[in-house]
């Protein structure tokens, strides 16, 4: 069993209105040093596959097909052995 | 002409069915998302709403429903496919139209009237409108901010595939004020404004009516059916 976490963010170059609003809010709270705020998603799942390679290739497919929209989003993931 | 109105959990199909029947006098049938064959229909409408609660992204889960495979098949066959609001999002997620819809730049759900310009009145969906006609349709969405890459935008413009634009205030921040686009073949239209909610004076506007009459006229002309209305 594998435990995966997927991080989804809005692509560089695509306007992230939510990130901008959060950045403005941080500035108004006195955190002027904050910049480049991007708001994304965090998804965790468990995969029951024979080996790591299979888990990884299946996870990539899931990301491309459903978990992200490749037109406007980027993703990265972490994959580790699930602790039972 | 026989219309299918697709129904996913969370769709607002009722007003589409009623608008089609009142505007065209032709039957519209609700089709559940697990249906795999749409070959008995001449036109398909993917209504607005919140399919699957907008989970993951608006339209993302619905785009993988069995009925969408049938929609793709009908689209290739040349049937007229109309996606409204969430239906537009589903068409983009399923790859039948290019680009994506992001959250409104205001971050607010906008439910209001919108001033729209018919940019292309020669599509199968707009032949009953005038060139550059200004119309008024309601919008109701939180993610209508259309984006695409520069190349896609250039080809949309070049091929005259931007069918509707917002005039005056852009309610969602969409690229180039885009409110609706068609595919390359011209038989798949996606739009954020709701024509089905503007089909009689008591609704505040009847500017949406001619979208449905356009579809019927296109179909009749293609099939050589005499116009009776």
How does this model look, in words?
The complex is a heterodimer of chains A (84) and B (229). Chain A contains 2 helices and 3 strands. With 84 residues, chain A is of the alpha+beta class. A 3-stranded antiparallel beta sheet of chain A has the order 2-1-3, covered by helices on one side. In chain B, strands 2-1-3-4-11-10-9-6-7 form a 9-stranded mixed beta sheet, sandwiched between helices. Chain B is of the alpha/beta class. The longest helix of chain B has 15 residues, at 209-223. Chains A and B meet through helix 1 and helix 2 of A and loops of B.
**Could you say what the CATH topology of chain A is called?**
Mth169, Chain: A
Distance between the termini of chain B: 13 Å
Mean pLDDT of chain A: 94
Summarize the helix and strand pattern of chain B as letters.
Answer: EHEEHEHEEEEHEEEH
CATH level-4 homologous superfamily of chain A: Phosphoribosylformylglycinamidine synthase subunit PurS
Round the Cα radius of gyration of chain B to an integer and report it. 16 Å
Quaternary structure state of the chains depicted: heterodimer
Q: Which two chains form the greatest contact, residue counts included?
A: A-B, 12 and 19 residues
Q: Supply the number of helical segments of chain B.
A: 5
How many E strands of chain A? 3
The structure class of chain A reads alpha+beta
Helix content of chain A: 25-40%
Domain count of chain A? 1
What is the topology, as strand order, of the major beta sheet of chain B? 2-1-3-4-11-10-9-6-7
- Residues in helices of chain B, as a percent range: 10-25%
General form of chain A? elongated
Low-confidence segments of chain A, given as residue ranges, are none
Largest sheet of chain A: 3 strands, antiparallel
């Amino acid at each position: 069993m594998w435990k995966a976490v997927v991080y989804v963010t809005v692509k560089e170059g695509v306007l992230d209105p939510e990130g901008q609003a959060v950045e403005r809010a941080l500035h108004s709270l006195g955190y002027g040093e904050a910049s480049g705020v991007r708001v994304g998603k965090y998804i965790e799942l468990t995969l029951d596959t024979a080996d790591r390679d299979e888990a990884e290739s299946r996870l990539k497919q899931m990301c491309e097909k459903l978990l992200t929209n490749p037109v406007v989003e980027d993703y990265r993931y972490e994959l580790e052995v699930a602790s039972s | 002409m026989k219309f299918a109105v697709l129904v996913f959990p969370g769709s607002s199909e009722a007003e589409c069915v009623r608008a089609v029947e009142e505007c065209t006098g032709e039957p519209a049938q609700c089709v559940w998302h697990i249906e795999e064959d749409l070959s008995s229909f001449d036109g398909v409408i993917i209504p607005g709403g919140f399919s699957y609660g907008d989970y993951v992204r608006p339209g993302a889960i619905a785009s993988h429903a069995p009925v969408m495979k049938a929609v793709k098949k009908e689209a290739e066959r040349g049937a007229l496919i109309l996606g409204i609001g969430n239906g537009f999002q589903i068409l983009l997620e399923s790859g039948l139209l290019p680009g994506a819809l992001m959250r409104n730049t205001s971050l607010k759900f906008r439910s209001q009237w919108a001033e729209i310009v018919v940019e292309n009145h020669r599509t199968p969906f707009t032949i009953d409108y005038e060139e550059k006609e200004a119309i008024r349709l309601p919008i109701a969405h939180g993610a209508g901010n259309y984006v695409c890459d520069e190349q896609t935008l250039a080809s949309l413009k070049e091929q005259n595939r931007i069918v509707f634009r917002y005039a005056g205030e852009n309610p969602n921040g969409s690229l180039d004020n885009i409110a609706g686009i068609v595919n390359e073949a011209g038989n798949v239209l996606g739009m954020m404004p709701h024509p089905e909610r503007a089909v009689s004076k008591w609704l505040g506007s009847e500017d949406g009516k001619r979208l449905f009459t356009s579809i019927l006229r296109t179909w009749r002309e293609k099939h050589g059916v005499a116009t009776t209305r």
